[in-house]
Design goal:
The protein is α+β, with helices and mostly antiparallel strands and 301 residues long. The protein folds into two domains: 174 residues, Jelly Rolls, CATH 2.60.120; 117 residues, Homeodomain-like (Arc Repressor Mutant, subunit A, Orthogonal Bundle). The chain is built from eleven helices and ten strands.
Length: 301
């Protein structure tokens, strides 16, 4: 599976190899770039808000594809792979990029990645009316002006402009017309694997798995568990449970070998409230207990 595209790689796709690395926040006019650029279907490591005023293309998110004709407001999240295939040239509009480092605690704690605009299964594609479009255009222009100033608190002000974009998006009624599923089994399976892998590695005893069962993943992906199970089995040949189990066991082995956490701490991080349950699970899938695995491997190294 391809690694995430960084903000720098994304920017150079538009501006060329001689461009400088973008900051933790940047905003652009689409027409300032020399060409209309397609984007392949994979995940980025940044948040993105786009306002396409003129232009058209095919936008794919997870298991849905939208045929877009501007004006349209779109939101993307580091958790969600997406692609853009332009149809018309001479696009006009704006987009801003920002990383986790840009987010303030209230945006992070407010669950930006789980909001209806950014979250998996949410409403990422919105069609603003005339008044909303004027406000959105004005906000992007304010962001462009502010980014070029030397004001020492400009990033605080830019966060407020991002909040305006988010709140305006929340007020726009989602439009479902023009949405059609495209190869939905493959897309939803890919998204499941992305979500599974994104939980690892576990970096501290307080870092606990968020998604541990097919039902957890299905809820986050906004699909029925049975549909997720069929899609994953169809496209990978393995069950959803098998993928989750294999990844948990692989992480358990790594932590047993390379961390000094005790077995109960490792089990808790992997979703087991009691150390005994983790021991039973590990032994069932490996043939030996966590303690024996740790001792034997260290002794043989």
């Amino acid at each position: 599976m391809r690694s995430k595209e960084t903000a720098g790689e994304f920017y150079r796709r538009f501006a060329g190899n001689n461009s400088s690395e973008p900051e933790k926040f940047n905003v652009y006019r689409i027409e300032d770039f020399e060409k209309t650029t397609p984007l392949p279907h994979y995940r980025r490591d940044f948040y993105k808000i786009s306002l396409l005023i003129n232009g058209s293309g095919i936008l794919a998110y997870a298991d849905q594809t939208y045929k877009i004709t501007g004006p349209v407001l779109t939101f993307s999240n580091p958790m969600i792979p997406y692609s853009w295939e332009p149809i018309a040239k001479n696009e006009e509009g704006y987009f801003c990029l920002f990383t986790e480092n840009f987010l303030s605690s209230d945006l992070t704690l407010g669950g930006l990645g789980r909001s209806p605009l950014f979250g998996v299964g949410g409403n990422h594609v919105l069609f603003p009316g005339v008044e909303s479009l004027l406000l959105l255009k004005s906000t992007f222009e304010q962001m462009l002006r502010e980014l070029g100033t030397g004001y020492e608190n400009k990033y605080d002000l830019l966060r407020n402009y991002v909040r305006i974009l988010i709140h305006e998006g929340l007020k726009i009624e989602p439009v479902k017309s023009g949405v059609r599923p495209v190869n939905s089994a493959a897309r939803i399976s890919n998204l499941f694997l992305e979500l599974l892998e994104r939980q690892f590695p576990l970096t501290s005893p307080g870092h606990v798995l968020q998604f541990k069962s097919p039902r957890d993943f299905a809820k986050q992906l906004n699909v029925h568990t049975n549909y997720l199970n069929r899609a994953v089995k169809q496209t990978t040949g393995k069950t959803t449970t098998a993928h989750i189990t294999d990844r948990i066991i692989r992480e358990a082995r790594s932590l047993l070998l390379y961390s000094d956490w005790d077995i109960a701490e490792i089990g808790y991080c992997l979703g087991f409230d009691y150390g005994a349950n983790f021991t039973i699970y590990f032994k069932k899938h490996t043939g030996e207990s966590p303690g024996i695995f740790r001792r034997q491997t260290i002794a043989n190294s």
